[in-house]
UniProtKB/TrEMBL annotation:
Pfam families xrefs: Hydrolase_4 (PF12146)
Organism: Vagococcus bubulae
Start and end residues of each Serine aminopeptidase S33 domain: 82-183
Protein name: Alpha/beta hydrolase
Chain segments annotated as transmembrane: 6-28
GO molecular function: hydrolase activity
Classification via InterPro entries: AB_hydrolase_fold, DNA-binding_regulatory, Hydrolase_4
UniProt KW keywords: Hydrolase, Membrane, Transmembrane, Transmembrane helix
Length: 306
């Protein structure tokens, strides 16, 4: 009888291990490996070249190499009036620069040249694994330095991000940034990859974070080079002293509203928080176009006098 119970227990443990392994691999491929994601129902703006009304010679394409050898590509729009102000605009999860026309237009209208990168593993940029902002933070430091090299030491830079792009610029904030970066604006970014994936695991599959998230985090560290727990916007913001504007919709069901208070409270610099009533994820500009534009304009005016 004891032997039967022992064999039964061993078989049960084996099945649990196999099941966990399959689940971890599924979650990794589902969230981290780049590709079409059926569960994404994000806002999709019109392509930049259709959405913006200016001559074609204002639009160009740039590329750089990441520290790990990936070719990263960005669209750039040069203002019709020579500018020493540049906005670097970061897109969301499984998005690309083509989808950020309406957001880039906000800064163009304020006299900025606009650089819109494709994050690694998105759009025209190379890469197999989604960085969720953590791997991308180093890429954005390179984009910042590329802008300074092109425009000179007197250029003034604003970082703006939407959704995963918001997490990207928040995670970038904790790096040693050049003095040319003046402010950061984030819209509906998550506080950490750990918390965001735990929320999605529960919301989509009704599963608890443990043990899937820690196991998938270790698997991601092994294959993609980062863990979910280290990819924290909160920890990076604790090192930030730059002025920041935080934007969120109170009906966000992809990145819950409570996360914006975590990141808002973490930063050490001057800060403002705007909550758009009734707005879902990445929906504030669409729902409140005039108010959103005014919010950006008013914030920029404090640090970029015309």
């Amino acid at each position: 009888m004891k032997k039967v119970l022992t064999y039964g227990l061993v078989i049960l443990v084996i099945f649990i291990i196999i099941g966990l392994g399959a689940g971890v691999n599924y979650l990794f491929n589902y969230a981290i490996v780049a590709g079409k994601k059926d569960f994404i129902n994000d806002v999709k703006q019109e392509k930049i070249d259709k959405d913006w009304q200016f001559s074609a010679n204002r639009l160009s394409e740039l590329s750089i190499k990441s520290d790990d050898g990936l070719k990263l590509v960005a669209k750039k729009v040069t203002h019709d009036t020579p500018s020493k102000k540049v906005a670097i605009v970061a897109h969301g999860y499984m998005g690309k620069s083509d989808f950020m026309g309406q957001y880039a237009q906000l800064f163009y209208d304020e006299g900025f040249d606009v650089l819109v990168p494709d994050n690694r593993a998105h759009g025209k940029s190379e890469g197999k694994y989604v960085g969720f902002g953590w791997l991308d933070r180093n890429d954005y430091v390179k984009w910042i330095n590329t802008v300074i090299k092109e425009y000179g030491e007197k250029v003034d830079i604003v970082l703006y991000g939407l959704s995963m792009g918001a997490a990207t610029v928040m995670m970038t904030s904790g790096e040693e940034l050049p003095n040319q970066v003046k402010v950061i604006i984030e819209d509906c970014g998550y506080d950490s990859v750990d918390n965001e994936l735990a929320f999605q695991l529960n919301d989509m599959f009704h599963l608890p974070a443990f043990p899937m998230i820690p196991l998938a985090s270790g698997y991601t560290k092994l294959l993609a080079g980062y863990s979910f727990s280290e990819a924290s916007a909160v920890k990076q913001l604790e090192k930030n002293t730059l002025p920041m504007l935080f934007i969120h919709g109170d009906k966000d069901d992809f990145v819950p509203e409570k996360m914006v208070y975590e990141v808002y409270n973490a930063t050490k610099g001057p800060k403002e928080l705007v909550i758009f009533e009734g707005a879902k994820h990445a929906d504030s500009l669409k729902k409140y176009p005039e108010e959103y534009k005014k919010t950006i304009e008013t914030f920029l005016a404090k640090y970029f006098p015309k």
